[in-house]
Every structure is written in structure tokens, then in C-alpha cells.
Amino acid sequence: MTTAAVFDTRDLDRAIPVVHVPVPGRERPASLDVPLDVPPELLERSKGQPGTRALRDARLRGLVDLHIDFVARVLRNSGTPHAEIDDEVQRTFIVAARRLDDIRPGAEKSFLFRIAFNLAAHARRTAARRREVSADQAPEQVERFATPEALTDQKRMRELLDSVLEKMERPLRAAFVLHEFEEMSTAEIADALGIPRGTVASRLRRARAEFRERVAAIGGFAAYVNREGQG
Amino acid sequence: MREMSGPSEPVLLRDESVSALERALLDAGRSYRSTGTARAKTLAALGMAGSATLLAGTAQAVPLATLAKMTWKMTWGKLLAAVSIVGAATAVPVGYLAWQRHHHPAMHGGAAPAVIAAKPIEVPPVLMPRALEDQATENGPAGAAHSARPAMTLAHELSSLDAARALLARGDASGALARLDAYGRAYPNGRLELEAEVLRIDALDESGRSDAARARAGAFLQHHPHSVLAPRVRTRLGD
């Protein structure tokens, strides 16, 4: 595939299966007429209007209002370049709008995550091709930022975090992002990824170990550079 | 956020780490937020009335109670008709053609309508879209440029497009074009320029000026082949 290839979001329709994994304690009542994310006031206003459309509209609005930060964060932490976040957020919700009927009430975040995670992978690949720089060339440039002063510099920490996450395998990264940044439980992550809880726990352990190992290596490298610099 | 903290649930690394570097990195990942621009672009692409919501959203937290208190006037309907059919037909909801009128006087303060001159405006057969800068390039590090702009301006931009879309949905393509011209004058470097351009292509086509619509659509695709909105334009072109 060349960089000129146009990404069609409809590919995601095929790439993202509808996974209905029940989450303990999160079961919805048998009647799913009322989507979770619709404010009661909006539902009230929808009365007398063509029901389905009104509910869909309210639900879509609710998705954007409640989950846009989640989507942006997932996109960013999954490797989407910062400059492309706005576009990818937009794209995520466009896909969600098209698949709205497939989104199980209560599973909105899971669904949005799957869209965003896939889009992030594509955005990352495209950005790498555009730069014509392999993904593992960046970390060396960024490790010098790991100085004590830099700990309070969000931009530098962000770049360093990118370099650490970049090396993580996708399945591990997904679990890590959802747990450490979104504070989702293993059950919720299992729902989002469509895998058993035990697998989530296992991936999480490996991801955390990798994360700590790489951060420790960077810290050691930075300490060495700082000592050399002072000497 | 966490609802299922059982005894076997792993503790957050942020909470148990003794490494300052680890904690700083994890904080960097947790603190990322969407921009007001992302919200506006999303609402515009979905063809949703969004100014009131946008303002609430830029304050970050959007409690449902706050949403419920808002007294915006909405006409439900046409948008989701479009959303429901796009799965088969297009890559983007045809919200541009299916608009619900939205107005919230308290939020807009009447400023947006004042910007929009309703006089008939000649629409030049422009070959180039106004938005020549790719959206990706405008988003600098940390989105500082965006966040520095007043949220009200972004809300007004969205409101202007809302108004144009409402006219188009009612079949008043000329009125929609006039509003879009007004938008272009009021916001020469608007953050929703691409969304406005797509709406303009729709309006030109609807008004029977299909040649102009095709020319602008071609220019749009030439300059923004990877835009989120490109599939929508291709659909209009019949590609």
C-alpha cells in the first residue's frame, strides 16, 4: 500500500465485530429501549417525535458529549500523532454514527475504543510512512529528555511516553492503555477487547513489566548522560 | 470510573510506583484531553447542533444535569434519518442535508446571527477551497493555539454552519450559500473551513450549479485527499 492510498472508514465496519460479552454487574435490563447515555431531559423532549430518530440523535449526542475525551485519549495513547487527533476523533464518531444500531447500550466505550484503537494503528502507520522514519528511531532522540527537570514538563513526558508505548505489542498496549490511563477494570477491558478476563490480567502483567523495564532503562540512561555531562 | 474493583483487581501502577519518572509518564497519559476544535469538527461532521453542547464541553466536564438544564430548541429528526441510511451509501453521515434547527439565545447572545449578512451574495465559481491549510498542520503541540482562542468564537463558527445547514435542509440553497459566504468573511481562517466547504459543495449542487459543485469538489479532493470529509465529497461527486 502506498501513502496515496485513501483510507476508507468503511473498512472498520468489517474490521470491528460486534462483540457482546456480558460484564458481571453491568447487565442491562431486558428492555433496552433507553440508551444509557441519553440525558432524561433529552428523552423527554424526544416524545412526540419520530421515536427512533430522536433516540438515535440523542444517543449520538450523548456519545460525543460523554466520551470525546476518552476517545481522544485512547487515540493519543494508542499512537495517533498529536497533529491528527482532531481528525481521528471526528472519524471515530463518524464510524460510530454509522454503526449506532450495533452499539449495545452500556457498551459504548468498548465500541468506541475498538474504533479508535484501529484508527490509531492506521494513523500511526501512515505517519511513519510520511516521515519515512522507522518507528524505532525516535526513542533515542527522546531519551535525553529524561532529566529530573523534565519530569514536570508535560510535553517532554508525553514524547517519552510515546517512545515507551511505541515498543509495546498492540494487544499488550490495548490492555495497558485501558487499565492505566482509563482505569477500567479487567472485566471492562475484557468486554472492550472481547477476550477472557484471565487473558486481560496476563497481558496487563506483561505490559506493566515491559513498561517498568523500559522506563528503568531510560532512567538509567538519563542518569548516565547526566553524570557524563557534569563530569 | 472504575466500577469493578474486586480483590484480584490489579492496582494502578500510578498508585504503587515508587519511580518519579514512571508516575510522570503515567500522568502524561492520563491527562490528555480532546480540544474544543475536535468537538466542533465532530459535531459539524455529524451535522449536529452543537454550540450549546460545545460550550459545555470546552469546560471539560459535562454533567448530565447541566445538559438537562439547557433549554436549546431542537427539531428532532432529519439528521438521524440520514445517519441510518449512510451505512449502505456513504462513508459520512449525510447530516449536511438533514439538519435540525438549533438555537440557544442565552448562549449565542444574538452575536452569531449578527455576523451573518442575509443579503444575496454572488458565489464565485471558485476552483480552490478556502481551506487551503490541512487540518493536521494547524494543530500545533499541545493544541495551544486552539485553546487560546475563545470558546465562544468556535461556538459561533459552528452556529453559522448550523444556520446554513438549516437553510439547505429546507431547500433554500441560495440562502445557505449566502450564509456560507458570510461565514467565510467572518472567519477567514475559520477552524471549520473544511466543513463549510463541504456544505458549500452540497449547496451549489442543490441549487442546480452542479458544474461549480463538481469543480469545488475536485479541488477539495485534490488538496485534502485524506480528509475525514473526503469520502463525503466523493459521494457527492458520484465517484
Overall description:
The complex is a heterodimer of chains A (231) and B (239). Chain A has ten helices and no strands. With 231 residues, chain A is mainly α. Chain A has two domains: 37-132, Rna Polymerase Sigma Factor, Chain: A, CATH 1.10.1740; 135-231, Winged helix-like DNA-binding domain superfamily/Winged helix DNA-binding domain (Arc Repressor Mutant, subunit A), CATH 1.10.10. The radius of gyration of chain A is 20 Å and the shape is globular. Chain A starts with 9 loop residues before the first helix and ends with a helix. The N and C termini of chain B lie far apart (45 Å). Chain B has one domain (36-105, 112-237). Chain B has 239 residues and is mainly alpha-helical. The interface between A and B is large, with 86 and 76 residues.
In short:
With 231 residues, chain A is an all-alpha fold.
Radius of gyration of chain A using CA atoms only = 20 Å
Strand-pairing-aware structural class of chain B: mainly alpha
Tell me, rounded to a whole number, the average pLDDT of chain B: 64
Major β-sheet profile of chain A? none
Mean pLDDT of chain A: 76
Distance between the termini of chain A: 50 Å
| Separate helix tally of chain B | 15
- Helix vs. strand class of chain A: mainly alpha
Q: Record the strand order, biggest sheet of chain B.
A: 1-2
- How many domains of chain B? The number is 1
Shape of chain B: elongated
CATH homology-level superfamily of the largest domain in chain A: Winged helix-like DNA-binding domain superfamily/Winged helix DNA-binding domain
- Strand tally of chain B: 2
Measured distance between first and last alpha carbons of chain B:
45 Å
Sheet with the most strands, sense and barrel status of chain B: 2 strands, antiparallel
N-to-C SSE series of chain B? HHHHHEHEHHHHHHHHH
